């Protein structure tokens, strides 16, 4: 495994691997959204929410205990996502999707910034804060109401809830299965802006590595997987990915 610090251009081997890739998989985590100013679950809550833990506000138990409280918190989170803008990393990923023959984007982020940057079909492991579903029957509840402070009901009579995967819930089976199939199939895997602490997502780079892929970590911080991967770039996604696109286009 090799290490690269802050750089003016990406390593030639990475450029060649990506340029020649048959199937590139990109996994993005909270570090990518943080570059757009989106707070993460690891950030301390402030203001109205400073007396709560995320586990209280993002769980079935929390919603059962106080649906309006959880709804209001998610209205705040969704507004923060709407006010954020896709950053250079989001746009570079969309460019890679256009440049290369087969790219699978897998994200742990729920803010919809990849779609706003032009990515068409990201596999959203943790759901999407802009969508709703029924807390009772789990039917698709569509988009948020025009008044985001107003709770709404499903046709079955149950309350609608945000479409994000909560603590204690399983990831959507079709999405996580698709991510693991892509990891097994790819020949290059970029692990971008993720702490590599949360499973099963943290297992995807290892599955790719075991299947013969060239696996790269892009993260200013070391992670539990760093020593097991082929290359670690200690630089932000907003720097590394545009540099990679520029090198590919050169």
Number-wise, the strands total 10
Strand order of the largest sheet: 1-10-9-8-2-3-4
Number of helices: 10
Q: Could you tell me how far the N terminus lies from the C terminus, measured between alpha carbons in angstroms?
A: 26 Å
Q: N-to-C SSE series?
A: EHEHHHHHEHEEEEHEHEEH
| Largest β sheet strand count, sense and barrel closure | 7 strands, parallel
Gyration radius, rounded: 19 Å
Mean pLDDT: 92
**Rough shape?**
elongated
Structural class: alpha/beta
Fraction of residues in H or I helices: 25-40%
Strand content: 15-25%
- Unreliable spans are 2-8
Detailed description of the structure:
The chain has 250 residues and is an alpha/beta fold. It contains ten helices and ten strands. Helix 7 links the parallel strand 3 (103-107) and strand 4. Helix 8 (173-185) packs parallel to helix 9. The model is unreliable at 2-8 (pLDDT under 50).
Quick take:
By secondary structure, this protein is an alpha/beta fold. It contains ten helices and ten strands.
Chain-wise SSE layout:
Elements: E1 2-4, H1 12-19, E2 24-28, H2 30-34, H3 54-57, H4 60-65, H5 67-83, H6 88-99, E3 103-107, H7 113-116, E4 123-124, E5 127-134, E6 140-143, E7 160-164, H8 173-185, E8 188-192, H9 204-210, E9 214-218, E10 231-233, H10 237-249
Parallel strand pairs: 1-10, 2-3, 2-8, 3-4, 8-9, 9-10
Antiparallel strand pairs: 5-6, 5-7
Helix pairs in contact: 6-10, 8-9
């Amino acid at each position: 495994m090799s290490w690269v610090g802050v750089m003016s251009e990406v390593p030639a081997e990475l450029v060649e691997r990506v340029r020649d890739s048959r199937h590139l998989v990109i996994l993005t985590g909270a570090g990518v959204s943080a570059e757009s100013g989106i707070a993460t679950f690891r950030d301390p809550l402030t203001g109205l929410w400073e007396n709560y833990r995320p586990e209280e506000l993002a769980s079935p138990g929390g919603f059962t205990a106080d649906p309006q409280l959880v709804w209001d918190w998610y209205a705040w989170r969704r507004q923060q996502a709407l006010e954020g803008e896709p950053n250079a990393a989001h746009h570079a990923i969309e460019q890679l999707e256009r440049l290369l023959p087969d790219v699978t984007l897998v994200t742990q982020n729920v803010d919809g910034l990849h779609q706003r940057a032009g990515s068409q079909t990201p596999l959203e492991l943790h759901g999407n804060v802009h969508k709703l579903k029924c807390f009772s029957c789990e039917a698709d509840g569509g988009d948020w109401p025009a008044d985001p402070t107003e709770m709404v009901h499903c046709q079955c009579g149950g309350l609608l809830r945000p479409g994000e995967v909560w603590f204690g819930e399983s990831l959507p089976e079709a999405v996580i299965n698709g991510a693991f199939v892509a990891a097994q199939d790819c020949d290059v895997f970029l692990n971008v802006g993720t702490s590599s602490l949360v499973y099963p997502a943290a297992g995807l780079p290892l599955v790719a590595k075991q299947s013969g892929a060239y696996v790269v970590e892009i993260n200013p911080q070391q992670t539990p997987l760093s020593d097991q991967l082929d290359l670690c770039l200690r630089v932000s996604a907003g720097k590394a990915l545009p540099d990679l696109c520029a090198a590919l286009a050169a």
